């Protein structure tokens, strides 16, 4: 628990929403909650992500209470660790995820949760943008963040609260060939290399966790959860930014960029060695002297039970400032590598919360990092 003095300081602190990068000094952040988290019923985009042999195939419903309590214990402790470093931490307000989602276009029997705010909220400068999302079960997830966003809007006269157009998510958004239960990994890799993803180009779709912020530049993953129209929508929405589409052919389930490509500080990016950035996307980084290094191997051979994410959550780290990074406590190889690269490593226990939506980067969303809109790629 944060002590009373810390709480008081934080409560009286002026709210400023502003964050331009993944690494500027973190001052204010949202940390998700595991409350009431559900395994959602089958739907096209979600099914495409669940491997044929996964323990999640065919089951859905509320997650066991002990696992929810354990995940919340870890998330609360992480929030306290950040507060102890002087970072202001806010938490979302869960809605009833057992409620179905029903719109004129589709219906699904339950929702998901609000552990990973990173998937939903994209902070770019003085704006927080609610992503379209691409899963039906996540249609209403933004509601969990509305109490906070409303408060920021009232407290910070420069805060721009934006929401991307809600997508219709009819069957036309999803490719039927991904519905088969027996797609081989080789087939998936061929499709990923050909940029044949589960989402079609019916309408703009993006999850916020497919976007990385590098000051004036935004790097966006084209994959299952973000389509080319979603990237084009971001380009038109942020006319002062350069928006770069990237894809990672080695990933059979390309959702979210944050276990694949992880900027650590200006000039340094970790890249998943099984999902290397292809040559045609490397120019921007090479011309500007950025180093892209293979991330260390994960410490685990398998993800925890009932988890959507891969073992590469090892590289889903949260940078606190260009010299300090939070790494999951059991990910010893990733910690060693970052230490060797000159970072101070802060271990944070989170593995038992992975199943609720990801790692340290996923379970947070920036409200404020101290910095400005810098051009980190002056050579274009
Ligand atoms: O490797 O399973 C996880 C990303 C979660 N935001 C993976 C990607």
Automatic annotation (TrEMBL):
UniProt-listed PANTHER family: GLYCINE AMIDINOTRANSFERASE, MITOCHONDRIAL
Keyword tRNA processing assigned: no
Protein's recorded name: Glycine amidinotransferase
Family note: Belongs to the amidinotransferase family.
SUPFAM superfamilies, per database record: Pentein
Keyword Transferase: yes
Domain of life: Bacteria
InterPro entries: AmidinoTrfase (IPR033195)
Keyword annotations from UniProtKB, A to Z: Transferase
Chain intervals for the UniProt region annotation (Disordered): 42-62
